[in-house]
Write a structure and sequence with these properties.
Largest sheet: 4 strands, parallel
Structural class: alpha/beta
Strand content: 5-15%
CATH class of the largest domain: Alpha Beta
CATH architecture of the largest domain: 3-Layer(aba) Sandwich
Shape: globular
């Protein structure tokens, strides 16, 4: 296998998917250590529910103000890295790579993004039954050619040794882009945009919902509500990055 990789790398010299740095012929990675080291973790303390930052860690506070006032439908949400929109101009940054994957129609970047997951996931496999990606509308899927959330979900499912289900949650209504919308506008934009057409497959199941980026949480909130209304026992959320 190592010899095959070297031959393949000789024909197609490997480079870092983020910064373009050259790798050696024995390389079996897509992102260099320097680019991985640039990933910005989420600042502690974090809300135990939505995984977002808390204003303080004083007392027994474990939930952010929003989750305390209006608990989300999902049980908890976790992310690996912070997503700074301002970093999208740096081609070697994680945000730039995510945008290239989604809007540059570069499906090969999916393997590189999987390396940003790190050696372990902040998830409890024993508390989950299946992995479900946030779906795309069929028109968007036709245009892009792949669902970036599904590619990430496949890697997450593999690491957790859980089945992945791609047909139990569908997007039945095309929505306008969520970018630059406030939280309430985002909620209205995705209201009734999803359906769970196979309720028997998810009845009583604890589902891990996977997407690439979480901004205000409006999309995953609507997905979670749809799955729970169809009979799921609980929904957790996992995203590669979180906009703060």
């Amino acid at each position: 296998m190592a010899a095959f990789i070297q031959i393949l790398n000789f024909i197609y010299p490997p480079r870092c998917a983020a910064c373009g740095a050259d790798f050696g012929l024995d390389a079996n990675v897509r992102v260099c250590a320097s680019c991985l080291a640039k990933v910005e973790p989420l600042p502690a303390p974090l809300c135990e529910v939505c995984g977002g930052p808390m204003e303080s860690a004083a007392g027994n506070e474990r939930r952010c103000a929003r989750c305390a006032a209006t608990p989300p439908s999902f049980r908890r949400a976790r992310s690996i890295a912070r997503y700074r929109p301002s970093a999208e101009d740096d081609p070697a940054s994680l945000p730039a790579l995510i945008r290239r994957h989604k809007y540059g129609l570069d499906q090969a970047v999916g393997r590189a993004l999987a390396e940003y997951l790190g050696p372990s996931l902040p998830l409890d496999r024993g508390d989950l039954d299946m992995v479900v990606p946030v779906p795309l509308h069929r028109r968007r899927l036709w245009w892009r050619g792949f669902n970036q959330a599904a590619l990430l979900a496949c890697e997450v499912a593999r690491r957790l040794h859980l089945p992945i289900e791609t047909g139990v949650l569908t997007r039945v209504r095309a929505t306008n882009p969520q970018t630059y919308r406030h939280h309430d506008d985002r909620l209205r934009n995705v209201r009734r945009a999803f359906d769970a057409p196979k309720p028997l497959r998810i009845a009583g199941k604890r589902i891990l919902l996977v997407d690439d980026v979480m901004t205000t949480g409006a999309t995953v909130e609507e997905c979670a509500r749809t799955l729970l209304d169809a009979g799921a026992q609980a929904v957790d959320v996992f995203t590669l990055a979180r906009v703060l």
